[in-house]
Amino acid sequence: MSSITANILNVVGILVFVVASAAMLTWVERRMLGIWQERYGPNRVGPFGILQVAADMIKLLMKEDWVPPFADRFVFVVAPTIAMFVVVAAYAVIPMAPGIGVIDLNIGLLFFLAMTSLSAYSVMFGAYASDNKYALLGGLRAAAQMLSYEVFLGLSLMGVVMLAGTFNLREIVLAQQEQWFVIPQFLAMLLFFIAGIAESHRTPFDLPEAEHELTAGFHTEYSGMKFGMFFIGEYVSVLLTASMMVVLFFGGWLGPVLPPLVWFLLKTSILVLLMILIRGALPRPRYDQLMAFGWKVMLPLAMINLVVTGVLVLV
Amino acid sequence: MSQIGRAVYLTWDYTWSTLRTLWDVASHTFAKRDTVEYPDEMPYLAPRHRGRIVLTRDPEGNERCVACNLCAVACPTDCISLQKTEDETGRWYPEYFRINFSRCVYCGLCEEACPTYAIQLTPDFEMAEYNRQNMVYEKEHLLISGPGKYPDYSFYQVSGKAVSGRAKGEGLNEAKPVNVKSLLP
Ligand code: SF4
Ligand code: SF4
User: Fold this and answer.
1) Architecture of domain B53-158
2) Domain boundaries, chain B
3) From B65, B111, B120, B121, mutation site for ligand 2 pocket: most ligand atoms within 8 A of C-beta
4) What pairs with residue A168 in β-bridges?
5) Residue in B70, B105, B124 to alter for ligand 1 test, most ligand atoms within 8 A of Cβ
6) C-alpha dihedral over A202, A206, A210, A216, to 10 degrees?
7) Cβ within 8 Å of B, A 113-172
8) What is the predicted pLDDT for the residue at B172?
9) Where would you tag: which of A74, A188, B148, B163 has the fewest CB atoms within 10 A of its CB?
């Protein structure tokens, strides 16, 4: 009985935590970008502007929920649902601390990879259903980008799997008790970080929704809460990438003195801030440069990392 | 060999410039803010800031505007409208003078065109209205009681044009008219 209660607490708690902190991230990001651009950012609603999220939420809910008459209605409505669903589902396998985590799959890592692959569908469906040329171009870019970056997103993780000898994320964390995997797998960490940013299509890899070229890319036709779901989905995937990096490379909840959950959240926040800093600092590449970078630089590096790790593990 | 060298150099160059960019941006974290929190704290606006437009008076307290229409002609958005009339002495002044601030772009061309310094832009921008019609300012809204940015300037004192009470050549810094029928210097 008590284990069922604990399970429900876990599920509900983590779901609420993930969605709420993703919503908060919209405020954190605007505030941090403001600070780095020597502005204030939103600081009016509530203390430090924390309630800005609530104000934005009210605004989005009050907006007209518009489905263009030329759109493919069913697919149009389903696409943002997929965007939200897959990232939240992927978060289920993240072990946040001993006893905190929705599910302990022994193929947790593969589940994560599968779910991030599925998120390509939300973008493509959204773009296709919109029947809009900007959306279509954005969707094409998103599909190509996500497929190419998925390749070495997966490959870069295999070094970790070899060292830990398991796909279970909880065991991967426990395997880092002596040494975080960031030290033997530094290159893989970098590759995963870049691929993660590309997967959640954030600047500098936000070509699917590049405002200056494609108005808003794949979600041009979306408004109100459907747009909100794409938006929050993007922030959940930022959170997901950061959490995944913590679990795989930075020792998860391991750390001295402080409670495990605090360590996990601390490390995740630092990585999220780094992702926001990258958004504030780096320009967007041209599309062919993006592809060339993926296939000609990242993929060979991931292969080399894989081979070297394999040799070292065998020897 | 040189190709490998070039690849190594480029990798290093790109990595270094990326890291340095990140560092430069991060170093702004504790820098002083460039912006001020506007409604609580007014930003400093230079005296020549181009904001709300006024019509000024000369040092004697008369309207400066002579209804020459140059400002209306210069205005790129055609938002000035005025009608000329005359007083008993034959001096021109505007019967009505209307600026539609919902169209004005605050370019300042009217101020540049005005020969009498009558029309001037001021450092005030808080002109928001709920009703668009309230953005149309009439002469009584535009006319102020002072001379604005040029406190000593009076067009009729220096213009060389005869008006009632002052003949040609009696203005400030003004030479007597040349007698074109005389040979003497
Ligand atoms: S500032 Fe420019 S737009 Fe405004 S009234 Fe003068 S000339 Fe016209
Ligand atoms: S404001 Fe100046 S330019 Fe415009 S009509 Fe009057 S005198 Fe002429």
Assistant:
1) 2-Layer Sandwich (3.30)
2) 1-32, 53-158
3) B65
4) none
5) B105
6) -60
7) none
8) 67
9) A74
